[in-house]
């Protein structure tokens, strides 16, 4: 049975559009941390939700899903990474 704290969390695929919108709101270019913070704000995630971590792993579940959404947006060509400057990922 899923953890009741995370059962209502969006999947990474449900965050794909939220990530693209966050990058746009940040001017089209931002660092990963900024994107994550913008998605959390836009989606209304509480600090308590962002601090829920995997069992035996200190990684934030929502932060991880946002990172996966960023990665899949890059793989699909919706976002790109600029090597010498800020990340549009």
- Structural class, from helix and strand content? mainly alpha
Low-confidence stretches: none
Number of helices: 4
The share of residues in extended strands comes to under 5%
Describe the biggest sheet?
A: 2 strands, antiparallel
For the termini, the CA-CA separation is 33 Å
Arithmetic mean of pLDDT: 88
Following the backbone from N to C, one meets helices and strands in this order, namely HHHHEE
Total count of domains = 1
Helix content: 40-55%
Strand order of the main beta sheet, please?
Answer: 1-2
Outline the secondary-structure elements:
Elements: H1 16-25, H2 32-43, H3 47-50, H4 61-75, E1 80-81, E2 87-88
Antiparallel strand pairs: 1-2
Helix pairs in contact: 1-2, 1-4
